Structures are given as C-alpha cells and as structure tokens.
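thought: fold this chain, then report.
action: predict
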Amino acid sequence: MSKQNLSSLGDAIQAFLKQNRLDKKIDTSSLTVHWKEIAGEMIAKHTTRLFMKDHTLFLQVDSAALKNELHFLRSQLIKNVNEYLKKELIKELVIL
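observation:
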C-alpha cells in the first residue's frame, strides 16, 4: 500500500468522524483516559469531574487549595492538553 493511499485513508477517517460529530467525543474520551499523564498525578488524584464544551475545559477538584493553585497553572494546563491532543482544542479552562 502506498503512502498516498494511507494518507487518503486517514483523511477519510477524519472526515467521517467530523461529519458524524464523533471527533469531539473521541477527544473528550482521550482526555479523560489520559488525564493523569496530561495534568500530573496530584491534579488527577483530586479531579472529581472533567468535561469539555465548545473550546472550554471544565475541571472540578475536591481541594480548595488546589483550586487556587490551578488558577496560576491555567495556561500551562491548556497548553498540555492541546499538545497531547495535537490540536488547538482548548482555549479556556474553568475550574469548578
């Protein structure tokens, strides 16, 4: 199989996912599954809820001190998520 055929197959799969609005669900699922790798063990341990809406990541934590600290780490977390997913998916982070 040539590289051109592989590229075309990948493009076709991406188009299918986007057309059926499955790409966002896959991104959300990937983010949830790999949250410990993206955010680090301590943040993941205290994360009680994680979801995306539009280009905003909503993060709920069980510690007021961590919530305060995350306000300072907001831009780094956004960068980590976007780098992990290899796309500019998250633009805002809301800490609940």
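thought: worth noting. DSSP finds five helices and three strands in the chain.
final: tokens above.
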